[in-house]
Amino acid sequence: MAGYDDRDGKIWMDGKLIDWRAANVHILTHALHYASSVFEGERAYNGKIFKSREHSERLHFSAGELDFQIPFTVDEIEAAKQEVLTANGLTDAYVRAVAWRGAGEDMGVASARNPVHLAIAAWEWGAYYGDAKMKGAKLDISKWKRPSPETIPVHAKAAGLYMICTTSKHAAEAKGCSDALFMDYRGYVAEATGANIFFVKDGEVHTPDPDCFLNGLTRQTVIGMLRDRQVKVHERHIMPEEMEGFEQCWLTGTAAEVTPVGQIGDYNFEVGALTREIAGSYEKLVRS
Q1: Tell me: the pLDDT tens digits for 141-188?
Q2: Residues 97 and 147 in one domain
Q3: Where are the alpha helices (DSSP H) in 126-237?
Q4: Which of 141, 170, 218, 224 has the most CB atoms in a 10 Å sphere around its CB?
Q5: 52: exposed, middle or buried (C-beta count within 10 Å: 0-12, 13-18, 19+)?
Q6: Exactly one of 157, 201, 232, 284 is catalytic; which is it?
Q7: How do residues 198-251 score in pLDDT, each as one tens digit?
Q8: Count of domains for the chain
């Protein structure tokens, strides 16, 4: 497949569809230098984007956390996403909406006078972790930690927060792993580089309290599914050594969907019945 800069198709940018290869920005775009960018990753199933409006609302929230305002309403973003799917003839697709401060009068840390842009692209994208979706992903443990809420806007889906995700995932892949697990600034289990994490012990589910990282929409959906099944869910701080006593583990995220985990560092997990049930039920839900 061609690189993401060299494809046929259309991308919605600042209110109109343009040719894929023409969707470019200036080299002095503020976001390129100072990470003044927020985004959403979404999946469409059978032509319908799952939790679409919630994603658009979160995009606006994230922009506000970075002190800029997107010049398109939630309703306009919703219409634009459908326009992109239609223009590209896609029904099952990954959808990326991104908003950023562009090039303008300011080229320092401050950028209040620079225009804000919005673009939406969509493409076909299969299982995020490949065959790990069936046999269980293998995770490294990152040397980096998710930072304190006093240092960054931890609940925004902001580009700059993913810098350590990229470096951690590269290090994990070099070791033959699918992804990496972060601890938070206090040493508690936090999340993977682009997915939340769940554990199972004695029929009950344990998942880290998202008090310093993104509370994913897929995470919230899966917690609801578990509670509908009368499965007890503990949202709490989890120490790394507790992983030794957990029986099952899975990741959740828009790209990851529900992916079982077979190993994290020296800790091993079975791809058990509850993991498979939730993965299967989530697949049915998003296509319903």
Answers
A1: 999 999 999 999 999 999 999 999 999 999 999 999 999 999 999 999
A2: no
A3: 132-135, 163-174, 217-228
A4: 218
A5: buried
A6: 157
A7: 999 999 999 999 999 999 999 999 999 999 999 999 999 999 999 999 999 999
A8: 2
